[in-house]
């Protein structure tokens, strides 16, 4: 199946005649789709865009490939505990399947038609590692830059961010380096923010991860509730931030970032803001 067919079928069904294409950037795919939609609306190429992603990759071939890359958890005797981002005993991700779709719309257009607005998307940062196919660079340098660019794009300061939906794959390299990137960018404020990895509950949705986690981030803002990182029994000493272990918590969230980083060195950070009317 060619990767653009879902976009094509949605366009045909609903008569959507604006920009119509698919992105491909591994685990950052649907975050890149959201960023593209955001930029297209910003420049006036469309007023409303249906954007997101889906993935159904639980097949022998994909599991075999990720297993050969030593990316998958080996907690086979305790599968419900296998996805454990930031835990000292994590050893790989758990594959999941799913999809998420958002309607991005120019704000004044949405207000004029009385649309229900969940949040505002105000920035996106896209970077490349130029380092290794499956490993992030030291200190998460690419992740650092993608978050920094999202903040610049949205014209806010690091200390204004209340929540980060982390990429948090439960692999040793990602979680350590994403934590380092957050600390390097946010400084002392890194210890005051709420962070969580919802992959602890959904598994890694690969190309759909960005869209689903963007939905989670938007709902976290709207509902003033931070979802938890389950299975975080004993944090890795190198992962010493507030990852919202075990249980979610109520918290006002004005600004939030959703991170997705893909094999191949593709990084995307999306910045959302509470809608104030």
Automatic annotation (TrEMBL):
UniProt GO BP: fatty acid biosynthetic process
SMART domains: PKS_KS (SM00825)
Alphabetic keyword roster: Acyltransferase, Transferase
One Gene Ontology term, aspect cellular component: cytosol
Species lineage: unclassified sequences, metagenomes, ecological metagenomes
All residue ranges annotated as the Ketosynthase family 3 (KS3) domain in the record: 1-274
Keyword Zinc: no
Molecular function GO terms recorded: 3-oxoacyl-[acyl-carrier-protein] synthase activity
Record-linked PANTHER family: 3-OXOACYL-[ACYL-CARRIER-PROTEIN] SYNTHASE, MITOCHONDRIAL, POLYKETIDE SYNTHASE-RELATED
Pfam families: ketoacyl-synt, Ketoacyl-synt_C
Organism listed in the record: hydrocarbon metagenome
PROSITE patterns named in the record: CNMP_BINDING_3 (PS50042), KS3_1 (PS00606), KS3_2 (PS52004)
Stated name of the protein: 3-oxoacyl-acp synthase, kasii
Domain called Cyclic nucleotide-binding: residue spans: 35-83
Record family assignment: Belongs to the thiolase-like superfamily. Beta-ketoacyl-ACP synthases family.
SUPFAM superfamilies assigned to the protein according to its UniProt record, in alphabetical order: Thiolase-like (SSF53901)
EC number: 2.3.1.41
